[in-house]
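Hello,

I think I submitted the adenosine-5'-diphosphate job twice by accident. Can you confirm which output corresponds to this input? Input:
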Amino acid sequence: MEIIHVSAECYPVAKAGGLGDVVGALPKYQKDLGHVAKVVMPMYRTKFLRDNQFEVVHKGYTHLNDYWFNYTVIKETTNKLGFDLYLVDIYGLLDREKIYGYGDDTERFFAFQIAVVDWLAAWKHHPDVIHVHDHHCALIPFMVKYCYAYRQLQNIATVLTIHNGQYQGQTGMDKTVYIPDYDLYKRGLLEWGGALNPLACGIRSAWKVTTVSPTYMEEMRHSSMGLEPLFEYEKGKTSGILNGIDTVVWDPATDRYIEDHYDITSFAEGKQRNKAKLCERYNLDIRKPLITFIGRLVGDKGADLLPQVIEDSFYYIGRKMNFMILGSGLPEIEGRLQGIRHLSRGDYNTYIGYDEALSHLIYAGADFILMPSRVEPCGLNQLYALRYGTVPVVRNTGGLHDTVIDYGDPGGYGIRFLHASVQDMTHGVWRSVELFNQQEMMGEIRQRMMQLDFSWEASVRAYVDLYERAKRGE
Ligand code: ADP
Ligand code: GLC
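Support: Only one job matched these inputs. Its output is below.
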């Protein structure tokens, strides 16, 4: 089977979060199962572009309403990622350093999607499945089905994976003029709640829709920023497939970002050496448990609660632990995390920014990783942490519910709490300190975690099965 993934992110080309990790890994594992998997994404001006070789495979000319533009599709020539990678360049729109965050993101991603579909229509060779990810690419199932110019693509199965339903890409209905001429009877599919909603349109137009964990799919039916009835109505074609992790990139025995490697037989010394590096670099106390957070500093991740949790932990539990926070996001959260630096007595530090290498060192050197997410469609941090023998302390939601069992329950290994509140999280910190002080149990739990298998194999089979069912019309 041949699958073409369309995404705004793909590691190591461009990554802002877990979407990049997933799209950088899933095609590799699909290939391992004997399928042909490719990725097409925008050609941002990232380091990857400067450091690698490409050839031009297509040049096209198309339009966003009355704005006509040239686009170029280039292909990476050395199979660096383990699958074919295509980048779409559109002068003036995609040729920027960052992935998102520009005032004209709607125009950028609409133009990208139009260029992708235009290119696929010009290509004589058609894939079996077009698999699109998140709202930036969610108009493609509609376009291949209902735009007159792309009718030759309408028999290709389309699958939409929702990595985060909080972001739907809503914009004014006036922007429907951007969509190439389509069957006007279908205009209703573009609209949801009075706005042009790309994610809602994708849910209605794709042949199959998935979320990145089963529990998150359940949650979407009850709470999905206005899409609840849609999830209920489209129930028949939706399912939750848990993400896996790239066990080559994320392996403490070979990780290219860390110097002190370890595995299940040597984790005690290995983790200690990585912890020593972190503690030295960030002025922390190696004798105390190291509790960390890595991620986007936004409300969905519960990052706004961190400063108060750190203050309360020091005050109520005592100076029995270290905190190290790596993240970037909302300026007010960044500011508050920096603002409480004065509290540190060699037991708190933060690095505000995005640093892939530091994240690997933290997974390797930390004892605990906090994930107080209000919303977590899957979450990869806890899966990386498990593989690196770092205990996840998580709110019981979405993919965290599906992957972390509390160590108080049979077969458990993590710490779970119920509410995204300062109190519940501080209690999680207290339990972490208690667990850390029972060294034998801590060692057993680390061993148990490192043996867990969250590799892609099972999920890849679930995706292939889904593609096959889509093609059979089931
Ligand atoms: P999301 O995609 O919602 O941000 P995930 O848990 O799926 O959450 O994935 C987050 C990914 O981004 C992980 O690979 C994590 O290590 C990485 N990450 C997040 N913030 C940073 C940061 N500031 N520096 C380095 N890596 C980060
Ligand atoms: C999103 C979600 C995260 C998930 C990731 C990869 O960014 O917020 O939970 O792990 O996508 O699917």
